[in-house]
Specification:
- This protein has about 190 residues and is mainly α.
- About 55% of the residues lie in helices and about 5% in strands.
- The protein has 10 helices and 2 strands.
- Strands 1-2 form a two-stranded antiparallel ribbon.
- A hairpin with a 2-residue loop joins strand 1 and strand 2.
- The chain is globular and about 55 Å long.
Length: about 190
């Protein structure tokens, strides 16, 4: 329990505690790897093990399972940004907006290069004030996906659609198929 035990800096795998890199930047790098369509599932899991654990556990399957649980802040399913099936943000595309918003919640600690625990970062991200740009961006994306934009919101969307629309990322094979299909249309 976070209130009594604090933020974890180690993960237990098969009864052995392994020190981890618990900083927010490590968490983001792992999440970005999992979003990378160019990586295989095995490669994504290896990125998790190599970045998260200071010394990799012997049981990689359990290490991956516990690593994902850590990234999920103990198993609360709060960090994906897709809980209702709508993709609301991308650490790659929205990095500067997320940085600014979370830095504001953490009162400048990100910009001061202080250590920020991954869980603290996620919790701060969940506490973004409504008036910050990232919150408004998430709101617009959600409303657009639900097809519930008001007239004013549609006008705003068309002004900043290059920011609002999340880029679709395709694997090399998927992009090849898309390109071949587009060639048939010419």
């Amino acid at each position: 329990m976070i209130l009594t035990d604090g933020l974890p800096t180690a993960i237990e795998v098969e009864g052995i505690e392994y020190d981890i890199n618990a900083d927010y930047q490590t968490g983001i790098k792992i999440i970005m790897a999992f979003e990378d369509s160019e990586l295989t599932q095995y490669e994504k899991c290896m990125v998790l093990v190599e970045l998260l654990y200071k010394e990799p556990p012997h049981n990689l399957n359990e290490a991956i399972k516990q690593g994902i649980r850590f990234l999920d802040c103990g198993g609360n399913s709060q960090g994906s940004g897709e809980s209702d099936g709508i993709r609301k943000y991308s650490f790659t595309q929205d990095d500067k907006y997320i940085y600014r918003a979370v830095d504001g919640v953490l009162q400048g600690r990100l910009s001061q290069s202080n250590f920020i625990h991954w869980w603290e970062f996620v919790l701060a991200f969940m506490e973004l004030p409504e008036e910050c740009f990232m919150s408004r961006l998430i709101y617009l994306r959600t409303q657009k996906a639900k097809r519930k934009l008001s007239k004013e919101e549609r006008e705003l969307y068309y002004k900043i659609r290059d920011i609002v629309d999340l880029k679709e990322e395709h694997s090399v094979e998927e992009q090849k198929q898309i390109n071949e299909f587009m060639e048939l249309l010419k």
